[in-house]
Structure formats: C-alpha cells, structure tokens
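User: Hey, my collaborator sent me this sequence without any context and asked if I could get a structure. I don't really work with proteins. Can you help?
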Amino acid sequence: MSLPLDPVLDEFTALEAQLADPVVLADQGRYRALMRRYGALKPAAEAARALQRVRRERDDAAALVNDPEMAEAAQEELAQLDAEAAELESSLQRALLPADPFDDDDVIVELRAAAGGDEASLFAADVMNMYQRYADLLGFTVEPLDSHVTEVGGLSKAAFEVRGRGAYRAFKYESGVHRVQRIPSTEAQGRIHTSTITVAVLPVGEDAELALSPSDYRVDVYRASGPGGQSVNTTDSAVRITYKPGSAEELVVTCQDGKSQHKNKEKALTVLRARLLERERARAQAEEREARLVQIGSGERSEKIRTYNVPQSRVTDHRIGYTTHDLAGVLAGGLEPLTEALARADEARQLAQRGDAMLEERAAETREARRGTA
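Assistant: No problem. I've predicted the 3D structure and written it out in structure-token form, which is a compact way to encode the shape of the chain:
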C-alpha cells in the first residue's frame, strides 16, 4: 500500500514560502508557531522527497526489464530500489505519527508511598534519588516542590519539577505503580517483602497556565515540619492550597520545601494547574473512550508497571516485558535504555493502529465502489 506523498510535500513547500514572507517574520507569535510545525514536518518531508526519487528511479528501471540486454541489471536494480523504498516508507510512516504536544514541556513528578509502610517510604526515597540522577544525566534542572520525610528517613510523599526541553518526553513513561521486592533491614527471618509506590507525571506547558480565580481556592499557611512533626522552619512558609473545598472537584496541593511563603505559593499553584490540566485530559479521554499514549498499557495509573527485584538485581517493565539485571545502573539514573524501549513500543503500537485504520479506509472505499456499480 503506497503512501501518498503530495499532501506532505505540498504542506512543507507552503511552510517554506510562509517562513520567507516578511509579513510572517514581523509577527513573532505566528513565526514561532510555523517554525514548530516546520520542524515537526521536516523529517517526513525529507523522507517523502527521497521516496519520490526512488519511485522515479524504480519506474525507469522497470521500463528496462523487457530489454534483453538490460533485463538482468534492471532486475537487480529493482530489487535494491524496492528495499530502499520499503525502508523509506517505514521512515515516513514513523515521521507522520502525531507528536505528543507535551513532549518538550517541563514536568512535575509526584511520588507517594503505598503498600508496605516504612519500606514503601524508603523505596520512594530511592526512586526520588533515581529520578534526580536521571535528570542530572540528561542535563535537566530539578527543583523540589514538596516532601514529607518519615521517621526512618523515607518519603511518604514528594513532588519535584524537572525543567528542560524534552523533560516530559524523558519522564512520561514513569506514571504508574512501581513495586520493589527486597529483604528489609528489620527482617530477622530473611524473607522478601513487597512494597509499592505510585508515580504521577504531569506536563507543565503553556496550557497549564490556565486562569485560576482566587475565589476558586483557599490558601492556608503553616510551619514546615520534618519527620515525626519536628519543626524545620521557624516561620509559616509552608503553603496548602485547597481547590474548590468541600466540592466533588476538591484538590489539595502542599508545598513546603522552599523557605519563602510567596515562592511556595507560586509552586503550589503551578502544581494545581498541572493537576487540573491532567484531570481535564483524563475527562476527555473517558468521554472519547480512547487513551492518549502517555504510557504503554491501559494508561491507568493504578496499573503495576515495573518491579525492582533486589535479591536478583533485576528490573522488569511489565508493559513491554523489558528486563535488565543491572538494577544498580537503573537506580543510578540509567533509565534511558528503558525509556527508549518504551518509546519504540509506543511507536510500534501507533503504527499498527495507523495501518489498521488505512486498511479499514481502503475496505470502506471498495465497499462504496461496489455499491456504486451494483
């Protein structure tokens, strides 16, 4: 099934002309929007142009197949060109997949200890450190937003912002339930315990700057505290924002890691906007009954996505069956191979869905043509 090339090349040519227009250059907002689309479409246009060239060369070679003197060489060239065309069509299909609009955004990551008590809180601290190292390796900046340290030195919950182009792309597959299997230091019998934490990943982009009226939320200030209620701040710098208190839409956000009440309030509002944006997207997905591919699998955060087995030094991602025995490397921030595997699986699923849609479209056209000739 040959891919049509004209729509891609026509749009790209039109974009090139618009970007050279002095009127567009004078409108920076429009220029930036067109440049984003130009950058997104460029790989597809390059693949389309190369495929267009290969198809022309194939037509020329096919014309020589019936020439006794050129037939053998023409057949060899056809085989090479067919292989090249297949590879280019695959590249073009991948390039035409819709980009995640949040991929380049900053991101807020929230962790919560779930089943397992103290051991779960210790695991939450381990995962927090893993993400910090992962962000450092990628050159991102991490800013703590909120953390609640337990008496054993773990984290009952924590939130932080990762800043840098592509932060959401790097972290978006981390949403879900993470499970650890290990022997706690307090376990006298040497038995393996299983504990879990939940991770939520929220993009922070222009859309997150939605309008919030002060009448929509209540702000409470209090003194930040450490493990066991121990005061770690002598001023009321911690902030709690309650969105639409008492209603079915109530959301509570806390921020206490900064020393400035004003900055903590700004950070809490950033988290609140991101949560509201995420809730609206989830609502739209439920209405349309189709999940946007933020993560592989069902897309539900309640889904167990990954297990960290300490005795066997094994990490398994259950969504794609990915396994590595380099647990130490993963906990040191080496998440890139896993993220790349998840991205490839995501891409493969989208390509399969696109192929199914194209087949259904062709089948519908055939049925319509048959009805027209009946």
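In plain terms: Residues 336-373 form the longest helix (38 residues). You can pass these tokens on to your collaborator as they are.
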